[in-house]
Structure formats: structure tokens, C-alpha cells
Amino acid sequence: MNIFVLTGAGVSAESGLGTFRDTSGLWTRFDPAKLATPEAFKRDPAQVNAFYDARRANLRGAQPNAAHFALADLQRRLAETGGRLFLCTQNIDDLHERAGAQHVVHMHGELFKARCPGCEAVVDWRDDLSGARCADCGGGLRPHVVWFGETPLEMDAIYDALEEADLFVAIGTSGSVYPAAGFVSEARRAGIRTCEINLDPSDNARAFDERRYGVASEMVPAWVEDVLGGR
Ligand code: BJW
Ligand code: ZN
User: Which one of the ligands is nearest to 27 CA?
Assistant: First the structure.
């Protein structure tokens, strides 16, 4: 069996990382136009860096939860039987990897990486980014994340994997940010079964063949058991 899983902020919510659009979400408290666009970074790099420095500090103290572990387990067990779990996340945290998942595609970048806009070098970065300079060219560094108006990463590999999948599953995402929100339509066009696992119905809930609602730490392990049990 070949499964494409797309995860969003909801999968890491129980690890203490904020979501974006829930009542206490990041974009309810902060303006994304001032923090998550290339224009905002050009205008006020210190403010944008401070926002990501705080989230990086939060991530250093966070731990994966049962949903991350269940997905890593499913990936391992599918691989043992000649199948595949293509794990694509919109999250910039590393909790899937810390739970043991391999080859995680971070379409919106990674918080523990920084990039030099001058020479495009990408480097591992776990500390504060404010004031940091590129070791290669001396330019100022930016978070290696995908902001509004920028092209998400690894899109060719993502669309190839979507076409090859037997099942598309979206977990913990509100379905409000494109292109990820359009994957369910792509999957349907390709005749692939689709399933949503989320706390509440997402913006595009009606596009899914199957819907399961509840917290990810309970719903994902239960779904993984069903998949492995052939249900
Ligand atoms: C739980 C739970 C629990 C809670 N258990 N569940 C008009 C129409 C269409 C498109 C556009 C448009 N105007 C502009 C666009 C394009 C734009 C876009 O989509 N804008 C929309 C707002 C309309 N998109 C872009 O600009 C993207 N680039 C692009 O399109 O380039 C063109 C291109 C396309 C295709 C190929 C090539 C080129 C870039 C988008 C970048 C998004 N960046 C951010 C910030 C990243 C860095 C950071 O983290 O700071 O990415 S924004 C933010 O939203 C972040 C997330 O990855 C993303 C998605 O959020 P997510 O994960 O869905 O979180 P929430 O909070 O929305 O939802 C959480 C869900 O979990 C909820 O449903 C809860 O119920 C649930 N939940 N607790 C289970 N315990
Ligand atoms: Zn550089």
C-alpha cells in the first residue's frame, strides 16, 4: 500500500506548538502580513527574526506526541511490506523526524535551518538568528521557511508522490493555505481515496471520502491500527 500523508499544525498542537487559525492561534494573535511575507522581512528583519527566534526556543523544549510516533511506525511497517508512506508536512518543526520518521518533505521549510538570500546557502541553525551572518558571503541570514507569495519546496516530488498513491490522508490542517489545500482535489482527480483526520471539519472537509474527528494523539494511532489491520 502506498499512502500520502499531509500533516499540518494540528498534529503538533498537543506537543505545545501553536496552530495558526484556532481561537488562540498564531495568526489570531499576530498579523501574518507583518511576519510571514518576504516584504515584511525586507521592512523589519529584526521583528521577523524575533518571532521565529521565540518559536525556535519553544521547539527546542517540545517533544513528539503519539500522532508523530504512530506515523513513524506506519512508515516503517509499510516499508517492511514493500509499501510506502510519503510524509509531507506543512510544519516547520522537526517532531516527525524526532519520532523516527524518514525522508520527511517539509514543503514550508524548517525552523532549525537558515538561508542566505544572497548566495542561497542553507545551514543548520538551532539558536537565535537575529544578527547572524552567512559564513560563505557575509550576508544576513533569514529563516528557511516559506512565506506567503513564495514557492513551496519540493513540489515536483510532491505531485509525483500524489499521483502514485493509493490513499491521501490530511491530518491536522485547516485546508486554507494553497497549494497544500488543493492536494485533496488533485488526489480525487487521480481517482485516489481521500481521508481527513482533524479536530474539526476543515475548510474543504466535503472533498474527502472519509472524515475522522478528534485529537490527533488519539485519532492517528487508531487510524494507523485500522490501516495495518486492513480495515
Ligand atoms: C487539531 C488539533 C489536534 C488543532 N488534533 N487537529 C487566494 C486563493 C488561493 C490561493 C491564494 C490566494 N491568495 C494568495 C494565495 C496563495 C497563498 C494562500 O494560500 N493564501 C491563503 C491564505 C488564501 N499561498 C502561498 O502564498 C503559498 N505559495 C504559493 O502558493 O506559491 C505559488 C505556487 C503554488 C504551487 C506550486 C508552485 C508555486 C505559500 C504558503 C506559505 C504558508 N506559510 C505559512 C508560514 C510558514 C512558516 C511558519 O510556520 O511560520 O505556513 S502560513 C501557515 O499556514 C504555515 C502553515 O504551514 C500553513 C497551514 O496551516 P495549517 O497547518 O493548516 O494550520 P491551521 O492553524 O490553519 O490549522 C490547524 C488545524 O488543526 C485546524 O483545522 C484545527 O482544527 C486542527 N487541530 N488541534 C488534531 N490536537
Ligand atoms: Zn551567503
Answer: 1
